[in-house]
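Thread: Modeling a multi-component assembly for a lab meeting

Hi all, long-time lurker, first post. My supervisor asked me to bring a structural picture of a complex we are working on to next week's group meeting, and I have zero experience with this. I have the sequence lines for every component (464 residues in total). Could someone generate the structure of the whole assembly? Inputs are pasted exactly as I received them:
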Amino acid sequence: MPPSSLPSTSAGAAENPWFSWDYVTQNAAILWQRASEHALITVEAVAIAAAIAIPLGLLAVRVRWLAAPLLSATAVLYTIPSLALFAILAPLMGIGRPPVLLGLVIYALLVILRNTVTGLDGVDPAAVDAARGLGLGRIQVLVRVQLPNALPSIVAGLRLATVTSVALVTVGVVVGYGGLGQIMFQGFRNNFYRAEIMTATLACVLLALVLDLVLWAAGRAMTPWLRGRAA
Amino acid sequence: MTPRTGVVDDALVYLNDPLTWTEPGGVLDLTREHLALTAAAVAIAAVLALPVGAWLGHSGRGAGVVVWLTNATRALPTLGVIFLLAAGGLFGNAATVVAAALFAIPVLLVNTYEGVRGALPSARDAARGLGMSDVGILALVEMPLATGLVGAGIRTAVVQVAATVPLAALAGGGGLGQIIAFGMGTQRYGQVLAGGILVAALCLLLDGLLALAQHFLTPRALRAGANSGVTSR
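Re: Modeling a multi-component assembly
Sure thing. I ran the full set together rather than chain by chain. Output:
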């Protein structure tokens, strides 16, 4: 890639701007590819984490004594820094995508689990009682009363997990799969090519904002009864 | 890459070698450096965030800014900031401290803000009725009542900073992250694994010790709700 290599050494200490549209247009293909990888691994990790954490949350609320050990176990995992986790997983799973994906799933798990439990705990017992009184079975109470009431909290957990995952993917650079982080690292090694690092960083923030907005809109669409109230 | 069982053996051999720990630039030296960098970053963040958070919480203004800052820094990739600092001419340990402090500020800010904001209105009213000034109310009533949340914020910030410092090793910073970065650079995956274990152990140990300190330093009357901090990550 001639355009992206060593811009500052070619013309002496010449220009190394913080941002350049030329860089963006000339490298649009690779930027798009890395951004897609970045988005895909984030979405995949959050989806897997949600598929595990939401049923776990339901279980923890039903089987009360499970809640405390589940939450503290995931909290311990959450305390382990991402770099350390990738460094532990990579030698065991091989370099590349798998350790990053597993690491992201682990971090997203805690956030979603915590919010699911909080959301279900916050459901008005009177509403559950009323539903039982109307003759709804356990599953129906769960699906028609408890889950819809816990939905705002679960969606908040999904949003938080998604935004943090987007930032965490970049750390995957250490194991060779960092999405936009690969471009940041390349810019760092290309004699501190500022435009390259800045573009990748901004793209990362933008990706987090877009995914957050999508989830916000989805959450809003799924809870029409909350519209008109303060968020 | 060596067979995967070999990696675990390599890591154990590396960790079992006394020289790994005691040589200059060994694990003990790196841990000391790691803790010094963490302390410096948290101290800088605290000096900036605690007074501002306390004042915003007292006056009740700036809630939007605090929330916005917390959310915005969540989306900002730490690695990008570290590389941008390097591209701006700030390298090594100075860059590490600046980047880590940057990400610790929102945590301390939001906890102090919520702590002061959440002080019992009746306590605040009583203090005002006694004729106390704004500064007096903040220092003698609201801040003591905020101890639990501020303590939780400091604990979160310390652990988060200790977790951020190793990232800076990718851009030439010091601390235990060097073991991981060096192992990756030389394809010694046993060392990478060992470095990962060391960093994880340090963070878990710090979190545990701070949990104990938090428990014993919180005035008994405030202990009930002390553990539920406003965390960010």
